[in-house]
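Researcher: Checking consistency across runs. Here is Endonuclease/exonuclease/phosphatase domain-containing protein again:
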Amino acid sequence: MPDSSSTLDVSASLSRWLHMALVAWNVQGLGNNDTVRALKNLNLKYQPAIIFLSETKQRKRYLERVRRKIKMSNSFYVEPEGAAGGLALWWCDDARIIILHSNKNIIDTKISIKGEDVWFGSFVYGPPYDDEKLSFWEMLARRRVDRDSKWCVIEDLNVVASQDEKMGGALIDQTSAKWYLDFLDITNLLEIPMKGGMFTWSNKRSGEDVILEKLYRALATVEWSALFDKAIVLVEAAIASDHCPLVLCTDGLSRRSKREFKFESKWITEEECYNVVKEGWVSNTQRSNDKLFVGKLRRTKSRLIKWSREKFGKNRRTEEQLIH
């Protein structure tokens, strides 16, 4: 099955019109070439000031080699515990970042981009285990006490807040959802608008077996939202991971940006979609790895567009039903 549960809706040249971009991604291990290549492509596309990776499952020495490949200047790491977990924060020279606190679930920072307003950023990987979740939300709520102004929380919170945020599988855990909603009440954080699809995680199955969930989100105080009043979160296509990368664009999208391609989250519920992607991805072309990868993406996109038109037609209402 395709790795995506999102809608891709931005121009490849978009980064020229962004005030600041921040990429956050649960990579589920950064030890394979496909993941590293996907990360390099995200970096080239958005030229982010900051990259946050969770579940790296790699030690600092290896992660430093990857960081140098994508030409990020600075770094901070939380080492994995055995073969699980691990956090990485990379940033360019335009960003000034002070590390305030870190553990296996958070890298807490104070940030200024190009010498402009200072704000707090908490880069988070929520615990997947129920017995750790309540203490995690209590820990994160305590961060709010020290910062009653500009604060942003981003990344994989590992919680589904309502049944509307899940498709397929068992019902959501109501206790975990309540803890999260209580956290929002205590901290008065608001969710930054997301563009590109609701679901950020997929079990990579199709038909009746598919499960889609919204596990990622970006939250901010009113003061942070006033500072970046056009901020938007883009949900990128998932490649080499079950999770979709998030791209936080503090200055929104340029009106001049061109819509290139949309991957509809519910395409993956159609059995035919697997064969369409497979046909686009298979290639016997003898090219360099980078050119081969780009060619695969282009062919896959072309076949998906053609298949979607034949399958669903061009009726606008049908397209909107697919998205929502």
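Researcher: Does this match what you'd expect to see?
Model: One thing to look at in this run: Residues 270-323 form one domain.
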